[in-house]
């Protein structure tokens, strides 16, 4: 019987994993989803106590200090220190308790700023990351270094996945820390519900920045399915990019249009070019994933956006606003 501990198990991806496992009901696996209430993973003793309690054979490590562009720009030291602590505590405790496999979650935003595109798994360490999030990026890159070091010294199968931008139900919608999609969903909901005396057709939604940067977005439930596949079947220490195809890349303005469509918003969209854009593109290649799983079907972007907005409006009172 596999015992799977998911750190960060109550966040965006953790909740998606819970949904998939609930539907699957695997009889040879027991899953434990740990949130920040279960343990402060920046504290070694608390991390050890969590592992002693769950006694996992396998770990999906999602827990991290995360945030969007503006939150990262102002807090690089905190992102660096907290994530270094969390990652070291989880990997070392997994080693001490003899866990068979650990799958950690990295991100495409940790790649070098000056690089050729599309980016792939071999390019993570080829140069400095974007200045806006170097603290988070270096801490995440070191997971890959640490995985190789545990493998070299002990033969452990600790690996990592590199998803593109993730969105879906149970995201973090708090304005100061949210990523682009939940941030826009939150702002559009507010715009539609506040000042009801103004006709919606006269309301204006502001897209931060030029709207031109390109991004690949993966629906959290698709990512959850792929992470479960990695846990069960991907047996390499080398990281693997979990991303939609390059052809599915969209501009930030197109994201705003998809959100407006999901809300059935009748107003106008404008771009505020005084706001920062971040990296222009981070196109990732999923060729490695496609070579191993050629038939995987990703959820259509607009369909996934409809589901995400519906979840938010239905669960507004419980959402992380």
TrEMBL record:
Gene3D superfamilies per UniProt: NAD(P)-binding Rossmann-like Domain, UDP-galactose 4-epimerase, domain 1
EC number(s) on file: 1.1.1.271
This protein's pathway: Nucleotide-sugar biosynthesis; GDP-L-fucose biosynthesis via de novo pathway; GDP-L-fucose from GDP-alpha-D-mannose: step 2/2
Boundaries of every NAD-dependent epimerase/dehydratase domain copy: 4-238
Record has Oxidoreductase as a keyword: yes
Record bears the keyword GTP-binding: no
Signal peptide residues on this chain, from the entry's feature table: none
Keywords: Isomerase, NADP, Oxidoreductase
Domain of life: Eukaryota
Family: Belongs to the NAD(P)-dependent epimerase/dehydratase family. Fucose synthase subfamily.
Described purpose of this protein according to its UniProt entry: Catalyzes the two-step NADP-dependent conversion of GDP-4-dehydro-6-deoxy-D-mannose to GDP-fucose, involving an epimerase and a reductase reaction.
Protein name: GDP-L-fucose synthase
Organism of origin: Drosophila hydei
Name of the gene: LOC111604137
């Amino acid at each position: 019987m596999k015992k799977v501990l998911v750190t960060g198990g109550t966040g965006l991806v953790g909740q998606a994993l819970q949904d998939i496992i609930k539907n699957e009901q695997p009889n040879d696996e027991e899953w434990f989803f740990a949130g920040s209430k279960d343990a402060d993973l920046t504290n070694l003793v608390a991390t050890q106590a969590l592992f002693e309690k769950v006694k996992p054979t396998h770990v999906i490590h999602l827990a991290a200090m995360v945030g969007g562009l503006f939150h990262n720009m102002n807090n690089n030291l905190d992102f660096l220190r907290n994530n270094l602590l969390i990652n070291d505590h989880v990997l070392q405790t997994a080693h001490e308790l003899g866990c068979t496999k650990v799958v950690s979650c990295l991100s495409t935003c940790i790649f070098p700023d000056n690089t050729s595109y599309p980016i792939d798994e071999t390019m993570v360490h080829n140069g400095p990351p974007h200045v806006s999030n170097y603290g988070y990026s270096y801490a995440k890159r070191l997971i890959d270094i640490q995985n190789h070091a545990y493998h070299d010294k002990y033969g452990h199968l600790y690996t990592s996945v590199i998803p593109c931008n993730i969105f879906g139900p149970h995201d973090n919608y708090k304005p100061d820390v949210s990523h682009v999609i939940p941030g826009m969903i939150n702002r559009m909901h507010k715009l539609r519900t506040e000042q009801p005396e103004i006709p919606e057709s006269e309301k204006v939604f502001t897209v931060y920045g030029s709207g031109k940067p390109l991004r690949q977005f993966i629906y959290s439930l698709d990512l959850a399915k792929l992470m479960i596949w990695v846990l069960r079947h991907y047996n390499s220490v080398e990281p693997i990019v979990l991303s939609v195809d390059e052809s599915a890349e969209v501009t930030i303005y197109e994201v705003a249009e998809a959100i407006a469509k999901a809300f059935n918003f009748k107003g106008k969209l404008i771009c505020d070019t005084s706001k920062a854009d971040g990296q222009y593109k981070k196109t990732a290649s999923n060729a490695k994933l496609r070579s191993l799983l050629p038939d995987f079907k990703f959820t259509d972007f607009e369909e996934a956006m409809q589901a995400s907005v519906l979840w938010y409006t239905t669960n507004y009172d419980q959402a992380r606003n």
